[in-house]
Amino acid sequence: MFELVYCSMASPGLSKEDVSEILETSISNNAKNNITGCLLLFNNEFAQILEGEESVVKALFNTIKKDQRHNHFLLLGSGSKDKRLFPSWSMAYQNLNESVDAYSSSEFVKN
Q1: What is the pTM of this model?
Q2: Does residue 86 contact residue 36 with C-beta atoms inside 8 Å?
């Protein structure tokens, strides 16, 4: 099993529809290629974990880097591992901006 972790910056003007399209394409293609992982979005920055066969994951990363919807890629790490962290997810997703907004309106935040 191979894992690759990177971050990137969303291109200016990236919309919710753009993110939805990225997810739909990722889920479909990753399922076909036995790739699993997670995509996070926070303050116009993406972080993604990809898991699968090394050559397939590296080829996918090269394709992702050509996507005009984000740029300034930084490879955070890659290498072999014993098992998948996201075995049931062809692409898990969390918009952390929405999570932060939910917490900031809760009673746990002191003004």
Answers
A1: 0.83
A2: yes
